[in-house]
Known about the structure:
By secondary structure, this protein is of the alpha+beta class.
Amino acid sequence: MKGPDREQILATDQILTSEYENLDWDIKDSALEKTFEFKDFSEAFTFMKKVAEIAEELDHHPDWFNSWNTVKISVTNHRAGGITEIDLLLCARINETAKLWVD
């Protein structure tokens, strides 16, 4: 079974289309970015731990920043030099995880 593409950089018109059109992530400087807010630091940290587990499973890791109840995530494929299919999959999985806390 073939996994998500990690090499082909997607053109802007290919990003956030088809199955990924409702991701609700911003495209900035060849990366996908989104900020999540939680009730408190504990919820934010628990979310980050779950995202870390997903990142390990996919062997694809986001850049992120945490300040108390806020987690800002940036996803790009550093090796490929832009946004690839694996980035979209990671963003989709992060969104699913966030639904445990954020509507």
